[in-house]
Design brief:
Helix content is about 35%, strand content about 30%. By secondary structure, the protein is an alpha/beta fold. The strands form four sheets. The chain has an eight-stranded mixed sheet, sandwiched between helices. A six-stranded antiparallel sheet has the order 14-15-13-16-18-17. The chain binds adenosine-5'-diphosphate (ADP), aspartic acid (ASP) and magnesium ion. The site of aspartic acid has 12 residues, from loops.
């Protein structure tokens, strides 16, 4: 008998029939004698729908009201799942984040979990109930509803598993595990039996939305045994393990992640004197715009070109800020490219292997794909390219590094 935290994502609870399917699965685990805490997302499409309704009313709605609104999606699903469970004779009780009490800071729309009070949950489990918790939400000290950022139900599940010292945290979704790359883009992508926390963290940060970044951080920090599996098919899924546990020779490349919807901004002709980068990025950061890849080139005329990428949704705002900065600095101008994407290779084996970057560039050159920016760290290499070549690039790299065949 084990204590298991399970999370079912939006597609897995997307219709009444699918909610019934989740209830049947949960009932099966109960029959095996396991204690279960089940975290659910909003039914698929619901959160996006709420966001568009808000945007119809106001261009920039207050983050506090956004959280009150967005948290309703998960509240619907918890009660429906409990009804489906009770209907097949499984005793269950639902809780919103605030009711649990999942205490967060007050950073609306991207709050961080500070503490979880587990007394209600433990009592219910003792009484033989399945506990169903709304993902993606919490409450701050002042009793305000907060949400944890898009995809945040994964983090609720891992945080609960850590707080309850669960034997495993299982993330049920619409794919049967973590793949070498998004199987929707590369049909021959291969499911990984295992991936290290570090690699998964890079994959998530670099665009693979199968797990929210914070959930992986949490799992690594608190050593939560974490598995990604399918809600629709049986199978072992993918286990996220520490590097010591992985106990095998690490493949050089484990996966390919990518991000669409990026923009590249370049400030041209920045005087080559100290303090310029600070003057460019200070106002960008003050506007809460997250900067990703940064590259600076020194020209012969003693000026620099500074290029960087951001999410496309922030592009207009950033361009407006930079127009002002350019005038102040006496730089030449700003260029904005709203059609770029980022592709990244991830693998802990890269640490001990040279020549990965050149192989990557070779594979892209063979497809005549121009590389605009490059950035590397110990276990990843990312390139920024024209967005229309994204799929081609991912497929070419998947083939070039032989990812479809198990090592
Ligand atoms: P959920 O609603 O269950 O949280 P998500 O849509 O957030 O599901 O995440 C699952 C999706 O992640 C898959 O349908 C898949 O298209 C995408 N994905 C991206 N990269 C990967 C990857 N490397 N392995 C598996 N799935 C991936
Ligand atoms: N419903 C939220 C979202 O769509 C949280 C989640 O699904 O994890 O982002
Ligand atoms: Mg998700």
């Amino acid at each position: 008998m084990a204590l298991v935290v399970q999370k079912y994502g939006g597609t897995s609870v997307g219709t009444i029939d699918r909610i019934r399917n989740v209830a049947t699965k949960v009932a099966g685990f109960r029959e095996q004698g396991h204690d279960l805490v089940v975290v659910v997302s909003a039914m698929s499409g619901v959160t996006n729908n709420l966001v568009s309704m808000a945007n119809e009313l106001q261009k920039e709605p207050s983050p506090r009201e956004m959280d009150v609104l967005l948290s309703t999606g998960e509240q619907t699903t918890i009660s429906l799942l409990c009804m489906a469970l009770e209907n097949i004779g499984v005793s269950a009780r639902s809780y919103t984040g605030g009711q649990v009490k999942i205490l967060t800071d007050s950073a609306y729309t991207k709050a961080r979990i500070v503490n979880i009070e587990d007394s209600h949950i433990r009592e219910d489990l003792k009484q033989g109930r399945v506990v169903v918790v709304a993902g993606f939400q919490g409450m701050d000290e002042g009793g305000n509803i907060t949400t944890l950022g898009r995809g945040g139900s994964d983090t609720t599940a891992v945080a609960l598993a850590a707080a309850l010292k669960a034997d495993e945290c299982q993330i049920y979704t619409d794919v049967d595990g973590v793949y070498t790359t998004d199987p929707r883009v590369v049909p021959e992508a291969r499911r990984l039996d295992r991936i290290t926390f570090e690699e998964m963290l890079e994959m998530a940060s670099l665009g693979a939305k199968v797990l929210q970044i914070r959930s992986v951080e949490f799992a690594g920090k608190y050593n939560v045994p974490l598995r990604v599996l399918s809600s629709f098919d049986d199978g072992p899924g993918t286990l996220i393990v520490s590097e010591e546990e992985s106990m095998m020779e690490n493949p050089i490349i484990s996966g390919i992640a990518f991000k669409r919807d990026e923009s590249k901004l370049s400030v041209i002709g920045v005087p080559d004197v100290p303090g310029m980068a600070y003057k460019v990025f200070g106002p960008i950061s003050d506007a809460n715009i997250e900067v990703d890849v940064i590259v600076q080139n020194v020209g012969e005329d003693k000026t620099n070109d500074i290029s960087f990428t951001i999410q496309r949704k922030d592009s207009e705002k950033a361009a407006r800020i930079l127009e002002k900065v350019v005038k102040e600095l006496g730089a030449e101008g700003v260029e904005v490219d709203n059609h770029v994407a980022k592709v990244s290779l991830v693998g802990v084996g890269m640490r001990s292997h040279a020549g990965i970057a050149s192989r990557m560039f070779g594979a892209l050159a063979a497809e005549s794909i121009n590389i605009q920016l490059i950035t590397t760290s110990e276990i990843k290499i990312s390139v920024v390219i024209e967005e229309k070549y994204l799929e081609l690039a991912v497929r070419a790299l998947h083939t070039a590094f032989g990812l479809k065949d198990a090592p």
